[in-house]
Design a protein that fits this description.
The complex is a heterodimer of chains A (166) and B (101). Chain A is an all-alpha fold and 166 residues long. In chain A, 75% of the residues lie in helices and 0% in strands. Chain A has 2 domains: 101 residues, Four Helix Bundle (Hemerythrin (Met), subunit A); 45 residues. Chain A is built from 6 helices and no strands. In chain A, α1 packs antiparallel against α2. Chain A is globular, with a radius of gyration of 21 Å. Chain A starts with a helix and ends in a 5-residue tail after the last helix. Chain B is mostly helical. Helix content of chain B is 77%, strand content 0%. Classes of the chains: A mainly alpha (166), B mainly alpha (101). Chains A and B meet through α1, α2, α3, α4 and α5 of A and α1, α2 and α3 of B.
Chain lengths: 166, 101
């Protein structure tokens, strides 16, 4: 009972944050909504049996990406700039697209027959140890490639954002 | 919660991200919409990982890779936003029309 309440709280966080992020005209509120949504998502990951991914979600997304977006916002647009008037035609188009998408996907989900496994895998297969072992053996190439991509992204970001030398 | 309800939450989050990405003209708001859609995808992966896949490390590693790639993407996107702001003194997506002649 309590568990259900906690899960629905997380779902509510995800959706409320998503609404804030999608409909807010003030960028700062949209970023706060994104943070709330990501926090709820981390809770859902925890509930889906993966504390490590939930921790990474909080550390990287909320601690890193959200803060980086706030920094970029403060460096680019002054906080005092008035947000542009809402473009109702565009908003209506976007909402129509989203409703059609959601309806189609919900219809597909209701009709789909997933082969669900009877019971979740053993405690050992879900452990962080198993995750680290797989990351360094079977998924080694992916892991190394990802680190290379991150390095290139850092170098590229510095090169793009630096002031042109005069 | 069952697999279906997780997938529905993921679809709802994706739709909200779609609204955010389609209705705003501010580049940072576009980025926020894209991030929401990416997270909806990771939620779906984690749900399938819990309910359908027999080896649970697969989906977790997939989601970790998505998080890493999102970090790289945001770094590049934000540096491009700063560059655009320096050139145009605005980050309105509809004013970036220098190439359209």
């Amino acid at each position: 009972m309590l568990e259900q309440a906690v899960i629905y709280t997380f779902v509510a966080l995800v959706l409320i944050g998503g609404f804030m992020a999608a409909f807010s005209r003030q960028i700062l509120y949209a970023i706060i909504g994104l943070g709330i949504s990501l926090l709820g998502l981390a809770g859902l990951f925890l509930n889906l049996g993966s504390p490590f991914v939930a921790a990474m979600q909080v550390l990287i997304y909320i601690g890193g990406i959200t803060v980086a977006i706030v920094f970029a916002m403060m460096l680019s647009i002054a906080m005092s700039i008035r947000p542009p008037d809402p473009d109702t035609r565009k908003l209506g188009f976007a909402i129509a697209c989203a409703v059609i998408f959601f309806g189609a996907v919900a219809h597909l989900i209701r009709g789909a027959q997933f082969q669900e496994i009877a019971s979740p895998a053993s405690e050992k297969a879900w452990s962080v140890g198993a995750l680290g072992h797989a990351l360094l053996t079977h998924y080694n190439v992916v892991f190394e490639t990802l680190s290379l991509v991150l390095l290139l992204a850092i170098i590229g970001a510095i090169l793009i954002a630096r002031k042109a030398s005069t | 919660m069952t697999l279906d309800s997780y997938l529905l939450v993921g679809a709802a989050l994706f739709s909200l991200g779609l609204i955010g990405a389609l209705s705003h003209r501010n580049l940072i708001a576009l980025l926020i919409g894209i991030e929401l859609m990416m997270n909806a995808a990771s939620l779906n992966l984690m749900a399938f990982n819990r309910f359908v896949v027999t080896d649970p490390t697969t989906g977790q590693i997939f989601v970790l890779i998505i998080i890493g790639l999102a970090a790289a993407e945001v770094a590049i996107f934000l540096s491009i936003i700063l560059r655009i702001y320096r050139a145009y003194h605005d980050i309105d997506a509809e004013k970036l029309t220098k190439l359209s002649g």
